[in-house]
Every structure is written in structure tokens, then in C-alpha cells.
């Protein structure tokens, strides 16, 4: 547990929270800081932690944070309350959203504005409570609040959910007449509603109107045009299919991605690559594995891009064994592999502490003539440091630096680390900010925060600008040796 200095500011706490990537650990840190004497959180601290609790696995903690805001009587802007309402909306908790809305002044010290009304209106829509949403909209008039564009967009969604498409069209026309110009969301809601209801002709008409009025940027109209081509038996070629897949991929429409692929009789490796990328971006990893199996069944030969996207995506989503299996199969088959696939695999292995395999792949890259980038070297060095294999880190660091003389294992890791650093500099090695951070981390881990601080002071010599990781590493280094005063000065 971190020992906090006697004087603790919300700004410093916010800095620590942002540096903590694990949301559970961040919330635990917030709990610890809350018990610190003579300290109260700021609105920015509450806003940051609430944004990280939107996930379904964490949303249960939102109640505790809201109660803490109330207890500390922290006056917050509307944005903080909005984050709470949106968290409840995303997790289908409209009653809790309503309760927060009704008590905004009491809890947050701010009155609900039009954005809060819109957010609660949307909460009812997302939980399929259209009648309740309409009744709430009627409440707008009683408080003298002027609806804005987002309000009418939600009303269009209500009409489409109830299949009242003429009413939705009427709202669009009324908005144009009143000078409240509809946007892509206004038209997108109506086009989607019509298409899902089977009214493709009407959907295309609305899409045409959208283009005529100069409202651009929505992919749904393109989907309707694509379907019209298919229905009229105008056969789109592979270029059209791939363009369509790319648009759907960007828009996150995974269901439609599959539909287009199923209709496509001329799929090529680019089509599969686009589909795999889109599925990864929407965290559909199991579906990616199915697509990979389908490629093999259809005898579609994967290229370097396929392997790069596959390995990177699998590692990023925690499917390390599957990524390694695919990479080894590709190596055995002498398939088309590039540096991206190897570097992604090495990064993944280093994050999980599987350093022997990572080192093997680094050697493989070197043997195959791939350039060992600073990202690859930094990943392995940082992996060694995290595993407390500092001598291995120094040895590999030496191999990365342009030196020729032999070097023997250090008696004292921290001093040897600095010696290797200076030897590398003498030989012309130009370190970047990441390499500085790695050595600073190693020195701090060995309890040598003072030397780490000296290295930090020299970063400007190499035009390296310290950032949050640098400062947090130094702070933790001084906290580790119980020098809280110096930690607070960093």
C-alpha cells in the first residue's frame, strides 16, 4: 500500500488515478485516499473515477461514489452527474438514473440542464420504455426548458421504436422548418428504423433526402444502396464488397459485416482481413477464430497482413496461446510473415512474463533479417525488469547498444545498470524517452531512486520530454525508500 505524504492535493490524486490502468486498483486507490485525514476529493477526481465505472462489472460501485459526493458535499458541474446517468443508462438501470436526476441539486449541487433531460429521456428509450419517455418529454414544457437537437433525435428514436415512421418524418420536416437542422443521427435513426421494418424503398428515399440536404457521414445509407444493388441483381464486384466491408468495419456494424460476407461470391484475402479487423475492434474474438477456420476451409491463403492483424488482435485480447499457435503454424508452413506479427507476439509474451519464448522470437527476427526496433527491444528489456531479471535486462541492453568490448555480470545491479547506460552513450547510442523510463524503473526497483532522479535530470540532453510514466515511476521509487518529501517534490 502506498504511503501518502501528510499534505495531499486532489491534483496529485488525479495524477495517480490516471496512471493506474487497472480500474479495480484505481477504485481501491480512491478508497485509500478517501481515508486520508484532512483531504476531500475534487469534482475532477469524481468525474475521472465515475467514467471508469461504466463497465457492467464495475457499475455497482457507482452508488458508493455518488454517496461519497453527497457526504463530502462536493459541488460538481453537470458533467459529473451526466456521467452517472449515462452509466446507469448503459447498464439498463433507468430507475437509478431517474433517482439521480431528481436529486441532482441535493447530491451534486447543480440543477439539471437540457443535457440531463436528454440523457434521462434516452435512458427510458434504451430500456424500451417508450411510453415513459413520452410522458417525461411532456414534463419539459412544465419546467420551461427548450428542447435542443439531441432532444428531437431521441424523439425520432421513440417514434421509430414504436414504428410510427410518418411521425418521425414529420419531426424531421418540422426541425428543418424551425431552423433546427437535423444531423446524421436524426437521419440515421429513421433510416435504420425503416430498414429494420422492411421499408427499404422508404429508407432509400430518406437517404436520398439526406444527401440532397447536404447531411453526410452516416454508413446506413450506404448499406441501403448496397442492398438495392443486390435486390436489382446488379452484382457488386469484390472491390465494392471490400469498400462496403471497410465502411461497416469503421462503423462497428459486426452483424452487417457477416451479412455482406455471406452474400459475397468473390471473397479474397482483403475481404477476410477487413472482416477480422472489424471483429477485433468490436471485441468479437471468438468470431475471429471462426473466420480464421473459414479461411482455411475455403483455401484462401493468408498474407502478412492477415497474420499481423490476427496475432496482434489475439494478444491484445488475452488469447496468447492461440496467437502463438498460429504464429508457429505459419513458421512451419513458411508462410508470409512480417515484423509486425513477430513484434506483436513478443510484446504479448513480455506482458505475460513468458520471456524465454519472447527472447527466442527476438533471435528469430534477427536471424531472418528483420530490424529490431526500439519497441521490440524495450518490450523484452521491460519484461526482464518486471520479472526482477535485471542482469538479463542489462545484458540484452548491451546487445542492443553498438559496443564491441566484452562485459561481465555485475556485482551490484543498480550501479551496473548505470555503467551500462553510460557505456552505451559513449558508443553513440541515442536513447529515447521509453529507454529512459525503463532504466529509471530498474534503478527505482533496485532502491536507487537518487540515481534515477539524476538520470531524469539528464533527459533534456537527448531532447526527451518526461511524461506521466516518468514522474509516477520516480514518485513510487521515493515512496519505496520512504522518502515522501522528495516524492512530493517530483
Automatic annotation (TrEMBL):
Gene3D superfamilies: Tetratricopeptide repeat domain. It holds the Pfam family PPR_2. PPR repeats lie at residues 113-147, 148-182, 183-217, 268-302, 303-337, 338-372, 432-466. Keywords: Repeat. It comes from the Eukaryota. NCBIfam families: PPR (TIGR00756). This is Pentacotripeptide-repeat region of PRORP domain-containing protein. It comes from Malus baccata (Siberian crab apple).
Amino acid at each position: 500500500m502506498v504511503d501518502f505524504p501528510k499534505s495531499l492535493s486532489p491534483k496529485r490524486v488525479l495524477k495517480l488515478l490516471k496512471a493506474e490502468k487497472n480500474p479495480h486498483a484505481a477504485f481501491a486507490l480512491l478508497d485509500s485516499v478517501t481515508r486520508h485525514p484532512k483531504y476531500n476529493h475534487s469534482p475532477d477526481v469524481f468525474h475521472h473515477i465515475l467514467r471508469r465505472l461504466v463497465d457492467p462489472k464495475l457499475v455497482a460501485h457507482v452508488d458508493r461514489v455518488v454517496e461519497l459526493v453527497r457526504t463530502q458535499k462536493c459541488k460538481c458541474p453537470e458533467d459529473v452527474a451526466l456521467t452517472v446517468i449515462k452509466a446507469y443508462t448503459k447498464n439498463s438501470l433507468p430507475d437509478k438514473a431517474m433517482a439521480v436526476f431528481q436529486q441532482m441539486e441535493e447530491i451534486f449541487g447543480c440543477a439539471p440542464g437540457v443535457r440531463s433531460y436528454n440523457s434521462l429521456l434516452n435512458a427510458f428509450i434504451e430500456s424500451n420504455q417508450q411510453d415513459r419517455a413520452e410522458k417525461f418529454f411532456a414534463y419539459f414544457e412544465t419546467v420551461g426548458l427548450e428542447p435542443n437537437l439531441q432532444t428531437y433525435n431521441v424523439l425520432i428514436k421513440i417514434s421509430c421504436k414504436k414504428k410510427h415512421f410518418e411521425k418521425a418524418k414529420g419531426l424531421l420536416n418540422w426541425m428543418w422548418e424551425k431552423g433546427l437542422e437535423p444531423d446524421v443521427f436524426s437521419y440515421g435513426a429513421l433510416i435504420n428504423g425503416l430498414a429494420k421494418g422492411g421499408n427499404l424503398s422508404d429508407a432509400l428515399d430518406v437517404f436520398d433526402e439526406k444527401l440532397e440536404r447536404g447531411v453526410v457521414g452516416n454508413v446506413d445509407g450506404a448499406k441501403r444502396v448496397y442492398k438495392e444493388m443486390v435486390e436489382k441483381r446488379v452484382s457488386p464486384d469484390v472491390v465494392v464488397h471490400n469498400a462496403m466491408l471497410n465502411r461497416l468495419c469503421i462503423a462497428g456494424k459486426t452483424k452487417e459485416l457477416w451479412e455482406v460476407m455471406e452474400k459475397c461470391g468473390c471473397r479474397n484475402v482483403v475481404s477476410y482481413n477487413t472482416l477480422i479487423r472489424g471483429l477485433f475492434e468490436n471485441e468479437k474474438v471468438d468470431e475471429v477464430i471462426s473466420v480464421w477456420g473459414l479461411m482455411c476451409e475455403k483455401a484462401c491463403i493468408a498474407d502478412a497482413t492477415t497474420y499481423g492483424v490476427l496475432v496482434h488482435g489475439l494478444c491484445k485480447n488475452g488469447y496468447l496461446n492461440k496467437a502463438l499457435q498460429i504464429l508457429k503454424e505459419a513458421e512451419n508452413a513458411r508462410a508470409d510473415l512480417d515484423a509486425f506479427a513477430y513484434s506483436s507476439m513478443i510484446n504479448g509474451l513480455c506482458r505475460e512474463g513468458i520471456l524465454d519464448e519472447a527472447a527466442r522470437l527476438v533471435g528469430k527476427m534477427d536471424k531472418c533479417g528483420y530490424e529490431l526496433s526500439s519497441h521490440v527491444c524495450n518490450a523484452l528489456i521491460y519484461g526482464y525488469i518486471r520479472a526482477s531479471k535485471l542482469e538479463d535486462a542489462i545484458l540484452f541492453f548491451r546487445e542492443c547498444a553498438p559496443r564491441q568490448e566484452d562485459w561481465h555480470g555485475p556485482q551490484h545491479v543498480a550501479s551496473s545498470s548505470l555503467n551500462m547506460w553510460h557505456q552505451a552513450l559513449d558508443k553513440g547510442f541515442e536513447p529515447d524517452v521509453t529507454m529512459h523510463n525503463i532504466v529509471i524503473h530498474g534503478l527505482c526497483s533496485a532502491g536507487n531512486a537518487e540515481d534515477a532522479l539524476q538520470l531524469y535530470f539528464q533527459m533534456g540532453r537527448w531532447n526527451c520530454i518526461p511524461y506521466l510514466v516518468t514522474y509516477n515511476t520516480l514518485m513510487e521509487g521515493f515512496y519505496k525508500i520512504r522518502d515522501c518529501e522528495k516524492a512530493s517534490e517530483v
